Amino acid sequence: MEQVLLDPAQMARAAADAASDKKASDVLLLDVREITTIADYFVICSGNNARQIQAIADAVDEALREQGARPFNREGVADTGWLLLDFGDIIVHIFGPTEREYYRIERLWSEAKTVVYLQ
User: What is the CA 70 to chain-centroid distance, rounded?
Assistant: First the structure.
């Protein structure tokens, strides 16, 4: 039976947990509700290579689907070192190490409240 998680905070934590379970590094969960209207939470993490980036994306997608969430959009591909999953209230960014350093997305959203940080 499918469980439904409607609370965006719980869904964001489930996404961060799923990424961590696939050995994503530097998993960051940001509460962006007070600084933007595009989402409530960002999950930002890194994978070491295209295969791991894809595995992280698949695990996050599966974990949130089990909770009744479906992605509205998916951008990028693992081979480019960046993949984004947009679940509406939650946006998941998965980077390769070089791309994460280059884009420094955490700095763009530095005013956001850090909810979880896992190295």
Answer: 14
What CATH number has the domain spanning 8-112? 3.30.460.10
83-113 per-position pLDDT tens digit? 999 999 999 999 999 999 999 999 999 999 9
pLDDT value, residue 117: 85
Exposed (0-12), middle (13-18) or buried (19+): which is 107, by Cβ within 10 Å?
exposed
pTM: 0.92
Closest CA to 77 of 106, 57, 101: 57
Which amino acid does the sequence have at 29?
L
Judged against a pLDDT cut of 70, whether residue 2 lies above it is answered with no
DSSP 8-state code for residue 42: E
